[in-house]
Design brief:
Two copies of one chain form a homodimer.
Chain A lengths: L1 H13 L16 E2 L11 H14 L6 H6 L2 H9 L10 E3 L3 H14 L6 E5 L4 H14 L2 E5 L12 E7 L11 H10 L3 E5 L18 E4 L14 E3 L2 H4 L38 H11 L7 H23 L4 E2 L10 E5 L3 H10 L2 E2 L1 E3 L3 E5 L7 H16 L2
Parallel strand pairs in A: 1-11, 3-4, 3-5, 5-6, 6-7
Antiparallel strand pairs in A: 2-8, 7-8, 9-10, 10-13, 12-13
Helix pairs in contact in A: 1-12, 2-9, 4-9, 5-6, 10-12
Function (chains A, B): Catalyzes the cleavage of L-kynurenine (L-Kyn) and L-3-hydroxykynurenine (L-3OHKyn) into anthranilic acid (AA) and 3-hydroxyanthranilic acid (3-OHAA), respectively.
InterPro entries (chains A, B): Kynureninase (IPR010111), PyrdxlP-dep_Trfase (IPR015424), PyrdxlP-dep_Trfase_major (IPR015421), PyrdxlP-dep_Trfase_small (IPR015422)
Keywords (chains A, B): Hydrolase, Pyridine nucleotide biosynthesis, Pyridoxal phosphate
Chain lengths: ~400, ~400
Amino acid sequence: MTDLNERAAKADAEDPLAYLRAEFDLDPRVVYLDGNSLGAPPRRVAGRVEEVVREQWGRRLIRSWPELWWDAPERVGEKIAPLVGAAPGQVVVADSTSVDIFKVLVAAVRMAPGRREIVVDAATFPTDGYIAESVAELTGTELVPAVVDDLDDVLGERTAVALLNQVDYRTGRLYDMAAATAKVHAAGARVVWDLCHSAGVLPIELDALEVDLAVGCTYKFLNGGPGSPAFVYVPHRLQASFRNPLPGWGGHREPFAMAPSYEPAPGIARARAGTPDILSLTALDVALEVWDGLDLAAVRAKGLALTGFFMDCVDELLGKAIEVVTPRDEWRGHQVSLRHHQARELIGELTAREVIGDFRPPDVLRFGFAPLYNTYGDALRAARTLAEVVSAG
Amino acid sequence: MTDLNERAAKADAEDPLAYLRAEFDLDPRVVYLDGNSLGAPPRRVAGRVEEVVREQWGRRLIRSWPELWWDAPERVGEKIAPLVGAAPGQVVVADSTSVDIFKVLVAAVRMAPGRREIVVDAATFPTDGYIAESVAELTGTELVPAVVDDLDDVLGERTAVALLNQVDYRTGRLYDMAAATAKVHAAGARVVWDLCHSAGVLPIELDALEVDLAVGCTYKFLNGGPGSPAFVYVPHRLQASFRNPLPGWGGHREPFAMAPSYEPAPGIARARAGTPDILSLTALDVALEVWDGLDLAAVRAKGLALTGFFMDCVDELLGKAIEVVTPRDEWRGHQVSLRHHQARELIGELTAREVIGDFRPPDVLRFGFAPLYNTYGDALRAARTLAEVVSAG
């Protein structure tokens, strides 16, 4: 235990990103390990949102639409672009992840008229799967569940598109985006990556890997706030053929012309639908400022170190009392999942002790480590508290 | 002119709703007549949104989802329900108007398998028309444009659903919801009403008229803030057959069970899609408090009186120099549209003089009158300023 204390103190003292925690409004009594579900609020968000209500909305009123708000989906998208390895003009923020998955899957199916199958990673985030099923029904295609390791078994001439998650939300396993993308491309199909559990905390190279389409959540590791809108990546080479099934005025070439027929905007704006949600976009916009000048390799290194240290603590303090589900090697995201038959109750007991993780049915405890604000001390306190509640039965 | 001054002063002095203006954060130098496009901010919104960021998000973090946020779409929907004549359990707030139009049109087409036509009011709000076209493509149905006055010409055995706007956004004309609904029903079809330009400022009787489905915007007369989410009405009798084409986890029977297959929630929640946008829902929730205890008949009476007085002012101060497009009788909403070949320039000149209306191509000036905060003095100053800029050429 002493050794773990020393290790935590030393690692925190030497952490080059430690200064970032002060950017977040976190209760010092709480160990918050659920940033993979809802990121913590950057301090500057509350005041800025209030200012937008009072000044931009209250003083400028309708004039803020052309002056400040209309382009916010693209403007905020440009802040996300470097975090996912996208050159400018290819990321837009609009609607929820579910709605965006719908847009990109329908668009991908439309790009491949002769191919009638949608491959979906069987361990996908549930809402992605529900939406994929609806897309299959509306486009007359067939859903094919797949294990990412065995993609070759299902990919073929009938595959229009494969929807894959970079990080498995239950186990925390990180998939090899380069390898899986190459497999899908070898079959002549397009790949859609769901980046919900990876964007912002590890280097992603969408352009370099020639990924076709991607969608990601902004309220997890990107700290955009509860229900902040998702982002969509459509590379330049596919924008002309991207036909959005939700062609609202937001994606129109001339939205304010109020033209009777839809003509898509030439660039990434065509992935928008209706009126953008300005208060939530503002919170996200401000939250993303924390990434200014950050090196994602350093963020990733800290994420691996934090999760590794947490697993060491769990090994030492809990031993065989609990099972570590998350891969021990580098193929893991920034969460550690543990399995225990009383997972739900344990998460309840931890929460009562101000250690916050989450429960995923039927028996998984998840702990997300946000490299921007979590400490090695957090990891140790979480493991120690877990050991207490497990041994208390 | 003196007479108009006296009329305005008297009407404002006698206005039973005059006390409500103090609820809004409006610059006294500005005459704001664009509440039909973006409502003004109720004073209490800015502080409450900041509080949600600091307290609910910052202190409670993920715990706020089950405690406070998850049901917000239904909770805020219940505040809108009485404004549109809906009994509890039939209104939910989620996504944008465009996305919601998509949901209800697809759902309506699915309810009528043998019928292959979607009738859309030809003067519909453009985004509604774009979405309807996409729905037709995805469901293999045909779009049939119609003039509301001549609905009988197009309704028939092939009609699945008719999408109609209660108020024409260009002319301000108010349509007879009872008559049009009865016509659609006589053809055995379902009607979807777009309430974007009417909700909150006139009595609407969705239940009593047996309207099938409805969608409305919350950032116009409901003052929810820029891009606040729209609402959907699905009456109890159609909920079991409402199949949402955007079946995100938000509409799942057990959203937190993370089940592999989609099972819709039993009630109105099935019209939700992805994660609800809490900051915008909060602003809307607070904005709706202004309606507590308000009589919509009184709101409507003031709207008619304000628009009527404005037209009197325009007649007297501008005469034949401008054309009034909006109906003079009671079949008008709460806006007055004027036609002038220099409409765009005139709106620019008015804005420079702190009188804010808006321009709709090619030649329409629109002035929205929000009965909760506009005054007869606003109407007179707007007409007077317009007369000045018109006579200045």
